[in-house]
């Protein structure tokens, strides 16, 4: 069964500012949304214990879009809408995300204040061919088994992409890839993400190689439709891996 929708949450910054590192903002906002329906479900999804986060693969994919902003020294000066886009595979996740989003009216993240203005449900496309061209809505992050973030020209890239795609589908829908994926970068450019991590002591920011733009993916039609919903690569809940069908 294919769900045909994804959720878009439209927000405004109360003080017209937001942090540059949007990955943890996305995670925090999603937790707030889920908490509005069930705190137990949020804990089951994100935590091993009260204080220890888990790294299990989640049926949540996100991207944050800012319609108009200026990059200042410390943060972003936002002059337009902020949109959190969320996609998912299973009906149960849709229930928690949609109903939680309806109940959430405002949101605070590390002193940045936001108000929720509206929610829309956007129809997804259905992939009918074994080859699709995707464009990124949030950066694609691929790493190897040693934890090294890869450039798309690396010989390990397609193997590592297949590995995480197979594991993602196996975790979320119960079985992995039915055919090996073939990947071809088109207008696919490197983008370095940075984030502050509490336990990272070497420097202020932790840097992550990622890519944005367009790429071709060939494989089983059912797998391609599932990946369209689940997102592609690592850190999918953290403003990464969301794609839209270009053709």
From TrEMBL:
GO molecular function, one term: hydrolase activity, acting on ester bonds
InterPro entries named in the record: Cas_Cas6_C, CRISPR-assoc_prot_Cas6, CRISPR-assoc_prot_Cas6_N_sf
Annotated CRISPR associated protein Cas6 C-terminal domain residues: 123-245
Keyword field: Antiviral defense
Domain of life: Bacteria
Biological processes, Gene Ontology terms: defense response to virus
Classification via NCBIfam families: cas_cas6
Protein name, as recorded: CRISPR-associated endoribonuclease Cas6
Organism: Clostridium collagenovorans DSM 3089
């Amino acid at each position: 069964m294919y769900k045909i929708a994804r959720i878009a949450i439209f927000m405004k910054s109360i003080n017209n500012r937001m942090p540059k590192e949007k990955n943890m903002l996305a995670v925090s906002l999603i937790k707030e949304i889920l908490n509005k329906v069930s705190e137990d479900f949020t804990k089951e999804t994100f935590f091993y214990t009260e204080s220890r986060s888990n790294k299990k693969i989640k049926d949540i994919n996100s991207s944050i879009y800012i319609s108009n902003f200026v990059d200042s020294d410390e943060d972003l000066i936002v002059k337009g809408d902020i949109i959190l886009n969320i996609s998912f595979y299973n009906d149960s996740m849709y229930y928690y995300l949609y109903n939680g989003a309806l109940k959430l009216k405002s949101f605070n993240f590390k002193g940045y204040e936001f108000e929720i203005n509206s929610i829309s449900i956007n129809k997804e496309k259905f992939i009918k061919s074994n080859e699709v061209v995707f464009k990124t809505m949030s950066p694609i992050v691929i790493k190897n088994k040693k934890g090294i973030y890869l450039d798309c020209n690396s010989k390990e890239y397609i193997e590592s992409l297949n590995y995480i795609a197979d594991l993602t589908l196996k975790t979320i829908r119960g079985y992995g890839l039915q055919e090996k994926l073939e990947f071809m970068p088109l207008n696919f450019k490197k983008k370095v993400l940075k984030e502050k991590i509490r336990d990272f002591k070497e420097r202020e920011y932790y840097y992550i190689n990622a890519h944005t733009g367009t790429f071709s993916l060939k494989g089983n039609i059912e797998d391609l439709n599932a990946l369209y919903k689940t997102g592609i690569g690592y850190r999918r809940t953290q403003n990464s891996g969301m794609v839209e069908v270009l053709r």
